[in-house]
Amino acid sequence: MEKNRLEAFSDGVIAIIITIMVLEMKVSEGINWDTFKMVIPKFISYIISFLFVAIYWVNHHHLLFTIKKVNPSIMWANMNLLFWLSLIPFATAWMGENHFEKITVAVYALLALFCGFSYNILQAAICKTYDEETAKRLMTKQSNRKSIMSIVLYSVSIPIALFIHPFISGFLFVAVSIMWLIPDKNIEKALSVDG
Amino acid sequence: MEKNRLEAFSDGVIAIIITIMVLEMKVSEGINWDTFKMVIPKFISYIISFLFVAIYWVNHHHLLFTIKKVNPSIMWANMNLLFWLSLIPFATAWMGENHFEKITVAVYALLALFCGFSYNILQAAICKTYDEETAKRLMTKQSNRKSIMSIVLYSVSIPIALFIHPFISGFLFVAVSIMWLIPDKNIEKALSVDG
Amino acid sequence: MEKNRLEAFSDGVIAIIITIMVLEMKVSEGINWDTFKMVIPKFISYIISFLFVAIYWVNHHHLLFTIKKVNPSIMWANMNLLFWLSLIPFATAWMGENHFEKITVAVYALLALFCGFSYNILQAAICKTYDEETAKRLMTKQSNRKSIMSIVLYSVSIPIALFIHPFISGFLFVAVSIMWLIPDKNIEKALSVDG
Amino acid sequence: MEKNRLEAFSDGVIAIIITIMVLEMKVSEGINWDTFKMVIPKFISYIISFLFVAIYWVNHHHLLFTIKKVNPSIMWANMNLLFWLSLIPFATAWMGENHFEKITVAVYALLALFCGFSYNILQAAICKTYDEETAKRLMTKQSNRKSIMSIVLYSVSIPIALFIHPFISGFLFVAVSIMWLIPDKNIEKALSVDG
Q1: Are D137 and D194 in contact (CB under 8 A)?
Q2: What is the predicted ipTM?
Q3: Is C58:D10 a contact under the CB 8 Å cutoff?
Q4: pTM higher than 0.90, yes or no?
């Protein structure tokens, strides 16, 4: 019951985050090639962020599927994750408007890192409500590897954006997303053994 | 359970898409005839898109009603559909602001085509979870005919917009919508025989 | 089940309508009395529309509480109501920005009338699914009187706004809202006798 | 059943309120230090308001958890709370855009006070549906103390913003939020004894 409302609120916030980003893709009047060219970087940054938020929703979905009871630490860890995700539309618009300028890409990568850490904090808060064995199974090698890979890739994409080229960081963002597109089934497996 | 959350998320996203379009219908201050005239094309493109998204919601509703379990391919096929639908407010605003200029109408038709293909992909992903006979009944003649008609009409409306007149394409959009307003009951019939 | 999703979608759309109106209450930078004075008419029109939409939500809530099954005509009558409600933020912003100019107030009253008619159409579509006696009890004297009163008051507020003074129409809007604030219990009573 | 829909609507509205605030954090094009500096006060006011609304959601969640039936006075007390909360994005944007100018901070504090009173009205409306003893347990010392503290702190922050320094009021806002971050378990305890 309580869990339902946490899910519903999170779904609402994530649905709004993923949809309002499109509002930033404004076009100035006029339809020559120059005005169209202005939309392209905004469109690319929209795709990157849509994928990013969609993956969080799917993983969030899997993660909350496992919990039975909501306690205050889960609730606030979830709020913390939603806070950082809610900044994605801002970072997306900023990056798109400035044509992937290096500082904007670095800020985006930093924000992605914060989202990743917040997700791990939520996972840890949920694991605490389980006995040690289930928790161990939940934190499987595969999902751990993905989490570590994401954090490493987002971390290196900050100096890459600043000192080498922001487009390489952009490709890294897409690479991380593709890695996550293969959903993590270990959480369910771990629990299906248990219950 | 899992299905509920997929529905809830899709409902949230579609509800936001259908509602934020109205935000584009801004009026400049002043209330003479000239400022009012500026709103008319925006209003017409809003009506077209409201109908378009509403029909998708209703059909989506019918389609998801038939599934029992969500698997990753259904989840991502659904995300893909939501992505293309989320671009509708952008295309609507662009078309309305530029008074149904031919290129904007062609882009709108192209986007409608992508939405149609994405819906078919979702349908195919759902059909895979059924045995062959139920799947065959699901893909009934009537709904197939409608899908093919939509794709044909949206396809021809692209060259019509570019080379003949964008208003004819606009009428084709409305024609497709009217065709879909008659809801497809075959999905339910097909399943009621089965279960 | 089906009904739940119709409710959820309607709730989503109405929640967005009621909330995005506040986005129109933008302030220009600077905080002298002149900039503040600009917000007052927008704030008043926001209050009027918040009340208006809130009353629709409550009545919609009561009305859908009574149905057991959703059919296509209920679904599309509901979509029609949501369409007209979705134009409220536009009419609110227009009225507020132009300081209750007579034409904007008349358009608002006209829109309120369309919302009222759409609600009646939805009510009629729902009544058709009941046997004659229950339907008769549903359309009680009290709620009928309120509906007729609303339509009369909104109708007269159009010429009043145009030819006498828009502020009188504004007071009529508030009067209609206060009339509806007393919730209609007859729908539930009618059904509690039945089931 | 009825209660579910009230929760769902409130969740929707609060989810939108908390998310649309980020839309105000627009950046002008250009990425020098000056444009970045403009975002900082908006970001701080966003954090303050995110926390504020999140705390309301959590407490609202706890409060509605206790009710069994929704009556008109609960419904309208809830609408009243949502109305004042819906003004938070406006007050946040105004405060952020004007760099915590004293009048904007005082208005924010006043709005926070109205939200607090509205919450108390909702609580009172819910308490009326219980017998005297349960109601007494619901209004526990701890939650009462927090409510009184909030009202006192928001009240004093109005003259402080106007006559001493708006930043002290800002710190008081954060202090109130931190006080509420420790969730109120008394409501559940009070009821678990009863039922």
Answers
A1: yes
A2: 0.83
A3: no
A4: no
